[in-house]
Amino acid sequence: xxxxxxxxxxxxxxxxxxxxxxxxxxxxxxxxxxxxxxxxxxxxxxxxxxxxxxxxxxxxxxxxxxxxxxxxxxxxxxxxxxxxxxxxxxxxxxxxxxxxxxxxxxxxxxxxxxxxxxxxxxxxxxxxxxxxxxxxxxxxxxxxxxxxxxxxxxxxxxxxxxxxxxxxxxxxxxxxxxxxxxxxxxxxxxxxxxxxxxxxxxxxxxxxxxxxxxxxxxxxxxxxxxxxxxxxxxxxxxxxxxxxxxxxxxxxxxxxxxx
Length: 259
Description:
Layout: E1 50-51, E2 60-68, H1 76-85, H2 87-90, E3 95-98, E4 109-116, E5 125-136, E6 140-146, E7 151-162, E8 165-176, H3 179-187, H4 190-208, E9 216-223, H5 238-244, H6 246-254
Antiparallel strand pairs: 1-6, 2-8, 2-9, 3-4, 4-5, 5-6, 6-7, 7-8
């Protein structure tokens, strides 16, 4: 799939009349979460704009995770159909995904409730955020991050065939959203945790198809520079906002009111 971006880095509509136009999300300026998601905390998503790699702060990385399904008689489309249907249960406990009832469809928002590694002796910190499903077809889907998400960029999940073997692949093109996230990724284990999340997903797929989780990971630093003009992204930091609003949520819950 070819990513389409405007000069500002936000998603652009598919070319008018393109054959795959139905696979793209409609252009949006602000995200809207519709419908309840059982067990999910919905914060830092409604009303947020989208952020591509050009809007982030930290070093820009492309990371590719690949799993061969050697000996498995399943087409890429069959693998992807199962992957989409079971996406929430493939995620680790510290990074839960909550798709809408519609499922993995273009334009839908997936809520994310995660926990980031402990810093400076403090306990692990919760983060409530989400992603927009930017593109989806029979063999792939891509998501884009909103303001305040730990990363600014894209993740593409795909199933493809090479030399008669079906591969599952996860590829990200993203940079830390703000200086705090960049510090966490570099020095506090955030980057390793992120990589472990996608290893976990592919390992769960390997387990389902009863194959060895021979996961290949390739990392490329596309741009090592910090974009200091984007340091103000800290204002939307989802970890800080999730943590600071926790007392209000607890109080409302104790009073029996909806947060």
